[in-house]
Amino acid sequence: MRRLTVLYDADCPLCVHLRHWLLRQRQLVPLDLVPAGSQEARRRFPALDHAATLREITVIGDRGQVYRETAAWIVCLWALAEHRPRAHWLATPAGQPFARMTVLAAAKWREALKGPGGDPGRDPGPGGCGDGRCEVPGPPG
Protein backbone atom coordinates (compact mmCIF):
# COMPACT_ATOMS: atom_id res chain seq x y z
CA MET A 1 0.00 0.00 0.00
CA ARG A 2 1.50 3.29 -1.08
CA ARG A 3 -1.22 5.82 -0.22
CA LEU A 4 -4.47 6.10 1.76
CA THR A 5 -7.35 8.51 1.37
CA VAL A 6 -9.18 9.38 4.59
CA LEU A 7 -12.72 10.73 4.14
CA TYR A 8 -13.61 12.80 7.19
CA ASP A 9 -16.64 14.90 8.16
CA ALA A 10 -15.46 18.49 7.67
CA ASP A 11 -18.49 19.75 9.62
CA CYS A 12 -17.56 17.80 12.76
CA PRO A 13 -15.21 19.54 15.23
CA LEU A 14 -13.86 16.22 16.50
CA CYS A 15 -13.21 14.98 12.95
CA VAL A 16 -11.46 18.22 11.99
CA HIS A 17 -9.32 18.01 15.13
CA LEU A 18 -8.32 14.43 14.27
CA ARG A 19 -7.57 15.48 10.69
CA HIS A 20 -5.13 18.09 12.00
CA TRP A 21 -3.61 15.53 14.37
CA LEU A 22 -3.09 13.05 11.51
CA LEU A 23 -1.40 15.73 9.42
CA ARG A 24 1.07 16.50 12.23
CA GLN A 25 2.20 12.87 12.51
CA ARG A 26 5.11 11.34 10.59
CA GLN A 27 3.47 9.20 7.93
CA LEU A 28 4.94 5.94 6.65
CA VAL A 29 2.09 5.76 4.18
CA PRO A 30 0.95 9.17 2.89
CA LEU A 31 -2.57 10.17 3.91
CA ASP A 32 -4.79 12.27 1.66
CA LEU A 33 -7.47 13.84 3.85
CA VAL A 34 -10.57 14.67 1.83
CA PRO A 35 -13.90 15.97 3.16
CA ALA A 36 -16.51 13.22 3.01
CA GLY A 37 -19.34 13.91 0.59
CA SER A 38 -17.34 16.65 -1.17
CA GLN A 39 -17.08 17.01 -4.93
CA GLU A 40 -13.49 15.79 -4.67
CA ALA A 41 -14.57 12.64 -2.79
CA ARG A 42 -17.34 11.98 -5.33
CA ARG A 43 -14.92 12.50 -8.22
CA ARG A 44 -12.30 10.15 -6.77
CA PHE A 45 -14.73 7.46 -5.62
CA PRO A 46 -17.93 7.59 -7.70
CA ALA A 47 -19.13 4.12 -6.63
CA LEU A 48 -18.91 4.85 -2.89
CA ASP A 49 -21.99 5.45 -0.72
CA HIS A 50 -21.13 9.05 0.13
CA ALA A 51 -23.98 9.45 2.62
CA ALA A 52 -22.45 6.59 4.63
CA THR A 53 -19.02 8.27 4.57
CA LEU A 54 -20.54 11.21 6.44
CA ARG A 55 -21.75 8.87 9.19
CA GLU A 56 -18.58 6.84 9.66
CA ILE A 57 -14.90 7.35 8.94
CA THR A 58 -13.96 5.72 5.65
CA VAL A 59 -10.44 5.07 4.40
CA ILE A 60 -9.67 3.96 0.85
CA GLY A 61 -6.44 2.26 -0.14
CA ASP A 62 -4.65 2.90 -3.42
CA ARG A 63 -5.88 -0.45 -4.76
CA GLY A 64 -9.52 0.22 -3.92
CA GLN A 65 -9.61 -1.34 -0.45
CA VAL A 66 -12.34 0.25 1.68
CA TYR A 67 -12.01 0.39 5.47
CA ARG A 68 -14.83 1.62 7.71
CA GLU A 69 -15.30 2.35 11.38
CA THR A 70 -12.81 0.43 13.60
CA ALA A 71 -10.79 -0.92 10.67
CA ALA A 72 -10.48 2.62 9.28
CA TRP A 73 -9.02 3.94 12.53
CA ILE A 74 -6.61 1.02 12.76
CA VAL A 75 -5.36 1.51 9.20
CA CYS A 76 -4.88 5.25 9.88
CA LEU A 77 -2.71 4.41 12.90
CA TRP A 78 -0.88 1.79 10.83
CA ALA A 79 0.10 4.53 8.36
CA LEU A 80 1.82 6.54 11.12
CA ALA A 81 5.41 5.88 12.15
CA GLU A 82 4.90 6.21 15.90
CA HIS A 83 1.58 4.37 16.00
CA ARG A 84 2.13 1.37 13.72
CA PRO A 85 2.97 -0.99 16.62
CA ARG A 86 -0.25 0.10 18.37
CA ALA A 87 -2.20 -0.54 15.16
CA HIS A 88 -0.80 -4.06 14.94
CA TRP A 89 -1.91 -4.72 18.53
CA LEU A 90 -5.37 -3.20 17.97
CA ALA A 91 -5.86 -5.58 15.04
CA THR A 92 -5.31 -8.62 17.28
CA PRO A 93 -8.11 -10.41 19.18
CA ALA A 94 -6.78 -8.83 22.39
CA GLY A 95 -6.81 -5.31 20.95
CA GLN A 96 -10.04 -5.43 18.94
CA PRO A 97 -12.37 -4.80 21.93
CA PHE A 98 -10.34 -1.74 22.94
CA ALA A 99 -10.36 -0.42 19.35
CA ARG A 100 -14.11 -0.95 19.06
CA MET A 101 -14.77 0.73 22.43
CA THR A 102 -12.69 3.75 21.38
CA VAL A 103 -14.58 4.11 18.09
CA LEU A 104 -17.93 3.82 19.89
CA ALA A 105 -16.87 6.47 22.44
CA ALA A 106 -15.84 8.83 19.64
CA ALA A 107 -19.19 8.24 17.90
CA LYS A 108 -21.08 9.05 21.12
CA TRP A 109 -19.04 12.23 21.59
CA ARG A 110 -19.69 13.21 18.00
CA GLU A 111 -23.44 12.66 18.44
CA ALA A 112 -23.40 14.75 21.62
CA LEU A 113 -21.75 17.59 19.70
CA LYS A 114 -24.61 17.58 17.22
CA GLY A 115 -27.22 17.99 19.95
CA PRO A 116 -30.91 17.33 19.40
CA GLY A 117 -31.47 17.70 15.67
CA GLY A 118 -28.38 19.88 15.31
CA ASP A 119 -25.26 19.66 13.24
CA PRO A 120 -22.04 21.16 14.60
CA GLY A 121 -21.04 22.32 11.15
CA ARG A 122 -24.11 24.44 10.75
CA ASP A 123 -24.66 25.49 14.34
CA PRO A 124 -22.94 28.81 15.08
CA GLY A 125 -23.09 28.16 18.82
CA PRO A 126 -20.33 26.86 21.13
CA GLY A 127 -18.58 23.77 19.81
CA GLY A 128 -19.79 24.29 16.27
CA CYS A 129 -17.94 25.35 13.16
CA GLY A 130 -20.18 28.30 12.38
CA ASP A 131 -17.45 30.69 13.48
CA GLY A 132 -14.92 28.92 11.24
CA ARG A 133 -12.71 27.70 14.10
CA CYS A 134 -13.92 24.06 14.38
CA GLU A 135 -12.24 23.48 17.71
CA VAL A 136 -12.88 20.43 19.84
CA PRO A 137 -15.05 21.32 22.84
CA GLY A 138 -14.70 19.71 26.26
CA PRO A 139 -16.34 16.35 26.96
CA PRO A 140 -20.13 16.33 26.73
CA GLY A 141 -22.23 16.39 29.84
Your description of this structure?
The protein has helices at residues 13-24, 39-44, 50-55, 69-78, 84-90, 96-114, and strands at residues 4-8, 31-35, 58-61, 66-68. 43% of the residues lie in helices and 12% in strands. The protein is α+β, with helices and mostly antiparallel strands and 141 residues long. The N and C termini lie far apart (41 Å). α4 packs antiparallel against α5 and α4 crosses α6 (96-114). The protein has a four-stranded mixed β-sheet with strand order 2-1-3-4, covered by helices on one side. The longest helix is centred in the C-terminal third of the chain and has 19 residues, at 96-114. The chain has six helices and four strands; from the N terminus they run βαβααββααα.
